[in-house]
Specification:
Strand content: 5-15%
GO molecular function: cholest-4-en-3-one 26-monooxygenase activity; heme binding; iron ion binding; steroid hydroxylase activity
Shape: globular
CATH architecture of the largest domain: Orthogonal Bundle
GO biological process, one term: cholesterol catabolic process
Protein name: Cytochrome P450
Radius of gyration: 25 Å
Oligomer: single chain
Organism: Nocardioides marmotae
Pfam families: p450 (PF00067)
CATH topology of the largest domain: Cytochrome p450
Number of domains: 2
Helix content: 40-55%
């Protein structure tokens, strides 16, 4: 019986053989198509994740590592981001010095702020990096493997990788909740949550160090975003655990075990979100998700179930994952710069600028990737369709042509808000106003409540490459 392997891997629908005589000749084995046998289907299901990992992690990790060993700046940057907790400012400077748009072995790379903005605003450049989507064998293999990819932040129809007109339609339905005016109405509630958490910290800590990430930096934003989306109190830890487990999905080069753990977390999160959306459909409230379920565009069209789940998941996860990093990075920076902390104590009106400076000097997101849709030109450089562009947000934030003495932490910096930590262009962070408000409330409240706060030995950074923050931040409160 002849078997044809579709698109490079796996098994086709198994055929049901029957014997038919051939006139004047031997017996022929003919086939009639029937559904795939359970064992063959299981083999295909098992093969797809392995192919996704191979194309999206094992192959890039090998290629990038080899390029780094040959001195490729982009390769060295990616390797450095996975092996050190320090911001690789020397590599940012080297990439910037090589020109506005550095050509590395596998991508165009920029750490120049005006060029980063130009790339992110270019209509010929789409969000995300397309791996395995070409027309050759690897492209066909990639498309086959991604048919069963669990929904995540880099999986359509996520707003992070969706382009107009769908991006415009979906974003419009949730933008009003995150407007500056709407966020200011949330400020009082955020202050109440922060004060309650700090009171609990003071009561439980005593003379022992307390982990500020676990007890404060994570709980403040997850409580706020959970209330916005109508998540019951009993399920907020579940959401927090999902977000933490799925955070590495933004990275390349994951080990097989880590990759499987991440995909498992994403699949569980997707199932939880589907149940949560259905619960809001049956019993709507005043929360954002209930509004999204009921919302219709100008033509009376609602979000599909996949769009609802993807948007709710992104808002929920992004609504606390990056803010956790902002708060932990800010606490560490202020601890390490006591003169800046003293200045804020004397002049509290400077807190909004201080938060912008935290975002600039140690942003929650290191970089973002783009793919060229059509031949285009950026900063005078012609880039062909299919080219990959890496915009180093953290590098652009230290562009010496924009920021004087860019490696210095200065809460009085007049143009601190010129950073690109929230990206730029049509994919500018939907929750930027919310994150800024939470950063101001969260950092000011803990600094004023515990003016003698001291970090204890042993803080650890997250082992994610794209998201930058602390895994643990032990501290003495007095």
């Amino acid at each position: 019986m002849r078997r044809t392997i579709p698109e490079g891997i796996g098994y086709p629908p198994v055929s049901n053989p029957r014997i038919e005589p051939r006139r004047g000749g031997p017996v022929l084995l003919r086939t009639a198509t029937r559904p795939l046998a359970p064992r063959a289907e299981a083999l295909r299901s098992a093969a797809r994740p392995a192919v996704r990992w191979g194309l999206g992690h094992a192959l890039p990790r090998t290629a990038i590592g080899a390029a780094a060993r040959r001195g490729d700046l982009h390769g060295r940057l990616i390797v450095a981001s996975s092996t050190t907790s320090e911001v690789p400012v020397d590599l940012f400077d080297a990439i910037r010095a090589s020109g506005p748009l550095h050509r590395s072995r596998y991508a165009y790379v920029t750490a120049t702020l005006p060029v980063v903005r130009e790339v992110l605003a270019n209509p010929d450049v789409r969000a995300g990096i397309d791996l395995g989507t070409g027309t050759g064998p690897l492209g066909r293999l990639g498309r086959w493997a991604h048919r069963t990819t669990p929904m995540g932040p880099l999986t359509p129809p996520s707003l992070l990788v969706t382009e107009p007109p769908d991006h415009t339609r979906m974003r419009k339905l949730v933008t009003r909740v995150f407007s500056v005016r709407a966020v200011q109405r949330l400020r009082e509630r955020t202050e109440e949550i922060a004060d309650d958490l700090l009171t609990s910290l003071a009561r439980e800590a005593g003379d022992r160090p307390v982990d500020l990430v676990e007890a404060y930096c994570a709980l403040l934003p997850v409580t706020v975003i959970a209330e916005i989306l109508g998540v019951p109190d009993s399920e907020r830890k579940t959401v927090l655990d999902f977000g933490t487990a799925a955070a590495p999905s933004l990275d390349l080069g994951l080990s097989w075990r880590r990759f499987r753990s991440v995909e498992g977390a994403l699949a569980s999160f997707e199932a939880w979100l589907a149940d949560h959306v259905e619960a809001k459909r049956r019993d709507p409230g005043e929360d954002l998700l209930s509004q999204m379920v009921a919302a219709r565009d100008d033509d009376g069209v609602a979000l599909t179930d996949r769009e609802l789940i993807a948007t709710a998941g992104l808002v929920l996860a992004a609504g606390f994952e990056t803010t956790v990093n902002l708060l932990s990075n800010g606490i560490a920076l202020l601890h390490d710069h006591p003169n800046q902390r003293a200045l804020l104590a004397a002049e509290p009106d400077r807190w909004p600028t201080a938060v912008e400076e935290v975002l600039r000097i140690d942003p929650p997101v290191l970089l973002t990737g783009r793919t060229v849709l059509r031949d285009t030109e950026v900063a005078g450089v012609r880039m062909p369709r299919g080219a990959v562009v890496t915009t180093l947000l953290a590098g652009a934030n230290r562009d010496p042509e924009v920021f004087t003495d860019p490696h210095r932490f200065d809460v009085t910096r007049e143009n601190a808000a010129d950073h690109v930590s929230f990206s730029a262009g049509r994919h500018f962070c939907l929750g930027a106003a919310l994150a800024r408000m939470e950063g101001q409330v969260g950092l000011q409240r803990i600094t004023e409540r515990f003016p003698d706060l001291r970090l204890a030995p042993g803080p650890t950074r997250r082992d994610t490459r794209i998201l930058r923050g602390f895994e643990t931040l032990p501290a003495y409160l007095s």
